[in-house]
Design brief:
Blueprint lengths: L1 H13 L5 E2 L4 E2 L8 E7 L2 E6 L4 E4 L7 E2 L9 E7 L2 E6 L2 E5 L7 E2 L9 E7 L2 E6 L2 E5 L7 E2 L9 E7 L2 E6 L2 E5 L7 E2 L11 E7 L2 E6 L2 E5 L7 E2 L9 E7 L2 E6 L2 E5 L7 E4 L5 E5 L2 E6 L2 E5 L7 E2 L8 E8 L2 E7 L2 E5 L7 E2 L9 E7 L2 E6 L3 E5 L7 E2 L9 E7 L2 E6 L4 E5 L6 E2 L12 E7 L2 E6 L2 E5 L7 E3 L8 E7 L2 E6 L2 E5 L7 E2 L10 E6 L5 E5 L3 E5 L7 E2 L9 E7 L2 E6 L3 E6 L22 H11 L9 H4 L7 E2 H14 L1
Antiparallel strand pairs: 1-58, 2-57, 3-4, 4-5, 5-6, 7-8, 8-9, 9-10, 11-12, 12-13, 13-14, 15-16, 16-17, 17-18, 19-20, 20-21, 21-22, 23-24, 24-25, 25-26, 27-28, 28-29, 29-30, 31-32, 32-33, 33-34, 35-36, 36-37, 37-38, 39-40, 40-41, 41-42, 43-44, 44-45, 45-46, 47-48, 48-49, 49-50, 51-52, 52-53, ...
Helix pairs in contact: 1-4, 2-4
């Protein structure tokens, strides 16, 4: 006993700085990007606002980005306004302020309420906010706000600008001006079309005020008293942003980016991609686009994507195919990695849009589906996608499965479609799917020769390859079936109230939720080749069952959040997509012992010895030893690995000796 104590003390002294370590989830390097809406900057810090992923900051000119959302309850960013060394952001639920360059945010909504903010502007010590319920003013750096709408004929205000002693408001009914800090407003729309376009942006340059509107670009040389249309060289465009870089004017339109070097007398195309806004930062231009942030160092002649660290696209599915991991996203299409996420490659050649809803691997082919665009087929990783549609070209496909040589597609509202794998002739097979809810297909699965469809009206089974369908309600009812998975005799159904299991080809079902939290809306499900089941929950994490769903163990410790969008298993790793945080991976051996589960056998070599101590220490230090069994090393079954487990391994070794 005395020797045991001395050996334990030596180990603790050597590794005394180590407390504990959980399973090692590792964030992969992408796919990067999301819809960037706005930019702002304070000194050397560049700030990007996104549509749904909050705020990111960069201190190296956009080369790397870090999410900065502590204290932000709403991640929809409409505007960014520096205020000295502080910064304000307008969101869908009010204004938030940071005094530490985005590290922390606090609410500034007294007098505003939680309303959508379109623009924030400072004029001296006074702040103004544009909203869809009018204009508000703050005289105390945003602590309190008061409405100032006297003279406005509409409360839909999109943009604000100051020039000289005047303040300008862009609205759904043209331009308004105030010469008394917002106490009263006057319409100044002379020269604008009679139907009064919406005004989205202002800039003052070379003694002209320019406005970006739903009818192109206008300028005024007399403080807005008269507007002149200046669209020579422009197609009919909707202008979302007008900025100046030196004497060059840039505009963002629905037809691309344009510039003018002669005060708007003529315009030249700078880029053919759509951008929400442009921002000047140092000598560079930054474009906020639906694909993320882009940078130009040559006045808009060429652009480079700079999204490293920015995440936010909704990931709809993960799939393994041809030794690659594929990810499908709404707004960005499909990316793949051939090196376990070290790098991701765009895989969108041949696609008609970037809203990918699902992926399905079958033999040498990969299939993907898109909003209202049907099905596309990829014959090899380096190839191009080919439309695999015919009669399915205008539907939104949600899921796939295969039975024999038939490929099946579940649709958003058109039931189930079927085609022979060698053709593109799809046919609807909805006999028995009699209601609109039963034709909203969320999942498909095959068990033996039976075909199953998970719908908004429950589970349906077909015993004749889809020619007819019969509802299966025993034990599961008619609730929405979001996911279906099969392993040997077991079937699993993921619903908004958890997991159900069947061991008789779906004839009857039973709840299988022991270990799952109370709120258990299933967003994703996968079964690996050994029958281990992973389920992702909305806002409640990732769980694993190694005993056919009888019990569940949380395996999400180390993930950035508990909103799991998709899961897949490939080789020795499980991959999980987390909302606004991209794709993460973890070794299966950390969660699932690959041997007999010998307690203390951390390196899975069938015995417990000093090598297991070394492996466990390396794991705690974050060195990712391989092979490594998290369950075997977690000798006290606490859910983490600490020096207490090292002590226990030492005791196991000494007891055996």
């Amino acid at each position: 006993m005395k020797n045991n104590y001395k050996l334990t003390l030596l180990i603790l002294a050597f590794y005394g700085c180590l407390l504990s370590a959980n399973g090692q989830w590792i964030q992969t390097n992408g796919p990067y990007g999301t819809y960037v809406t706005r930019f702002g900057s304070i000194d050397s810090t560049l700030i990007a606002g996104t549509s749904g992923a909050g705020v990111y900051t960069s201190t190296d000119n956009g080369s790397n980005w870090i999410a900065r959302n502590n204290g932000l309850p709403n991640l929809q960013i409409n505007c960014i306004t520096p205020l000295g060394k502080d910064v304000l952001v307008g969101t869908w639920s009010g204004i938030f302020k940071s005094v530490d360059r985005g590290l922390n945010w606090h609410e500034c909504n007294e007098g505003l309420g939680k309303i959508e903010i379109n623009a924030i502007m400072s004029s001296g010590q006074v702040l103004f906010a544009a909203t869809l319920v009018g204009i508000f003013r703050s005289d105390d750096a945003g602590a309190k706000w008061s409405p100032i709408n006297n003279g406005l004929t509409t409360l839909y205000v999109f943009s604000l600008h100051t020039s000289g002693n005047s303040i300008f408001a862009g609205t759904s009914e043209g331009v308004f001006r105030s010469d008394n800090l917002g106490q009263s407003w006057s319409a100044i729309n002379s020269g604008l079309p009679g139907w009064l376009p919406s005004i989205y942006s202002f800039v003052t340059v070379n003694n002209f005020i320019f406005i970006g509107t739903t009818s192109g670009v206008y300028r005024s040389s007399n403080n807005g008293n008269l507007w002149e249309k200046v669209n020579t060289g422009l197609p009919h465009v909707d202008v979302s942003s007008v900025i100046a870089k030196g004497t060059t004017i840039f505009i963002c339109t629905d037809k691309g980016i344009f510039n003018s070097t002669n005060n708007g007398n003529s315009w030249t195309s700078s880029a053919n991609f759509w951008a929400k806004e442009l921002h000047v930062f140092g000598e560079d231009l930054f474009a906020a686009t639906s694909f993320g942030a882009y940078r130009s160092s040559n006045n808009g002649a060429t652009w480079t994507e700079v999204n490293k660290g920015i995440y936010g696209y909704t990931i709809t599915s993960l799939a393994e195919h041809a030794n690659n991991i594929y990810v499908s996203m709404i707004g960005r299409g499909v990316f793949r990695t051939a090196n376990q996420g070290v790098s991701w490659i765009e895989s969108n050649t041949g696609l008609s849009n970037y809203n990918s809803t699902s992926l399905f691997s079958s033999g040498s082919d990969l299939f993907s589906s898109y909003w209202w665009s049907g099905v596309f087929r990829l014959p090899n990783p380096s190839g191009s996608w080919t439309a695999w549609n015919n009669s399915a070209s205008s539907v939104t496909v949600t899921c796939f499965t295969m039975l024999g040589n038939a490929l099946y597609a579940g649709t958003e509202s058109g039931g189930v479609l079927r085609t022979n794998i060698s053709t593109t002739n799809w046919s609807a097979i909805n006999n028995g799917l009699t209601t609109p809810f039963s034709r909203r297909i969320l999942s498909l699965a095959v068990n033996g020769t039976n075909l199953f469809a998970g719908t908004f009206a429950g589970i349906f089974r077909s015993d004749n390859a889809g020619d007819s369908w019969t509802p299966i309600t025993s034990g599961v009812g008619s609730r929405s079936i979001r996911k279906l998975s099969v392993f040997e005799q077991y079937m699993y159904a993921g619903t908004h109230v958890g997991v159900f299991r069947s061991s008789n080809a779906g004839s009857s079902w039973e709840p299988a939720n022991t270990g799952l939290p109370g709120w258990r809306l299933i967003t994703s499900m996968v079964v690996d080749k050994s029958g281990n089941v992973f389920v992702g929950l909305e806002n409640n994490g990732l769980y694993l069952s190694t005993n056919n769903g009888s019990t569940w163990l949380s395996v999400d410790d180390g993930l950035p959040n508990k909103s799991i969008e998709a899961i897949t298993v490939s080789g020795t790793h499980v991959y999980a997509a987390c909302m606004n945080n991209g794709v993460w991976k973890r070794q299966l051996s950390e969660m699932i012992p690959t041997q007999s589960g010998l307690r203390g056998d951390a390196n899975i070599d069938g015995k417990v010895d000093v090598l297991d101590i070394i492996s466990t220490v390396n794991f705690i230090m974050g060195n990712n030893p391989s092979p490594f069994s998290f369950i075997n090393a977690d000798t006290n079954a606490s859910g983490d690995i600490s020096v207490l487990d090292i002590i226990q391994i030492v005791n196991i070794i000494l007891q055996a000796a």
